[in-house]
Amino acid sequence: MQTPRIELAGVRKSFADNHVLRGVDLKVPKGGSMVVIGGSGTGKSITLKCVIGLVRPDAGVVRLDGKDVTHARGAARDAVLDRFGMLFQGGALFDSLPVWRNVAFRLLQGKRRKSAEEARAIAIDKLRRVGLGPETADSFPAELSGGMQKRVGLARAIAAEPEIIFFDEPTTGLDPIMADVINDLIREIVVEMGATAMTITHDMTSVRKIADEVAMLHEGVIQWCGPVGDLDDSGNPYVDQFIHGRATGPIAALR
What we know:
Structural class: alpha/beta
Number of strands: 10
Radius of gyration: 19 Å
Largest sheet: 6 strands, mixed
Shape: globular
Order of helices and strands: EEEHEEHEHHHEHEHEEHH
């Protein structure tokens, strides 16, 4: 069996008396697109932050290609981060920097540092890949629409050709048409790059568009995980409630 690119085993995280993650077990295969769904406050973002290293689990292990990176720090942590790209929920663009410098941010520092001329050329190429022309490069984020800002964020996520890309609520704040465009771009780019993707979202349209597999996070654990094609017939009451807006089985009994 192939070693998972990303693996969480027994990951727990609490904040005071709030037990957010109660033993998360999840495997994402190399080149796969995993989408984690769940209601607000179920721990989706904390799960992602544990993988990235922004939050340290209280217990459990995070592995990349079989290597324990749970407590990686310093140069070891930097080496892990170099493998990641991320599209943030709110875009997280730097308002004071022109678009091309936002896209090329990681290319202008650290071990990947390139000349400004080369970094700009890469940024323009990535902007083209997400459907934005070279004239966008010298604009500032405030001059762009929400959909264009999301595309810039996607261009930045892929600028360094990462092996793993994280998507945090990628369609939040977008109208249905632009959300569909972003979903298509995400799917195309992940397949094109051969990257491994991990997405958190509550948007079922996004789930069906970009997922290979789906994991349902509820009450701090993964309640169900399987192929996206099995969602509607999962037989899991939490999944059924989430995607259809109706409660069955043990959930219905609580009413």
